[in-house]
Amino acid sequence: MITLLDTNVLIALAYEQNPFHLKAKTLFRGLFKTGWATCPLTENGFVRILGNPNIENGPGSTKASRDLLFALCAAPGHQFWPDSISLLDEERFPQLGGVKALTDQYLLALAIENQGRMATFDKRIDASLVPGGAQALMVLA
């Protein structure tokens, strides 16, 4: 089963100062055979957050963080999943979470659409908002 990496997992993977770096690295190595994915939202979040020049020991620019993302996506098993679903789909999104939950809800539904799962460090995601979400959500502890 292919695993969509949430932005927080991608950042932990690339940023050694992140407290979850080793967990992300361990997960990542295990996904080389089964596959892993990024999508426009996770890639954008990665470049936007790590591209902030104020992050201590970070890449320092959006170009440098994009270069890091290029390197990550060259690793075995990578797939790019385009945004192929809509929040307007009431069957896929019978109810919407609050404004802070929408992106996570969308990413979880995108993983389900691609017959995969979503890996995240975020323990606050309400998987019940997405049909099939409980089976597709992988919270890393």
From TrEMBL:
Coiled-coil regions, chain positions: none
MF GO annotations: DNA binding; hydrolase activity, acting on ester bonds
Keyword terms, alphabetized: DNA-binding
Pfam families: PIN
Residue ranges of domain PIN in the record: 4-126
NCBIfam families referenced in this protein's UniProt entry, alphabetically: Mtu_PIN_fam
Protein name in UniProt: DNA-binding protein
Lineage per the UniProt record: Bacteria, Pseudomonadati, Verrucomicrobiota, Verrucomicrobiia, Verrucomicrobiales
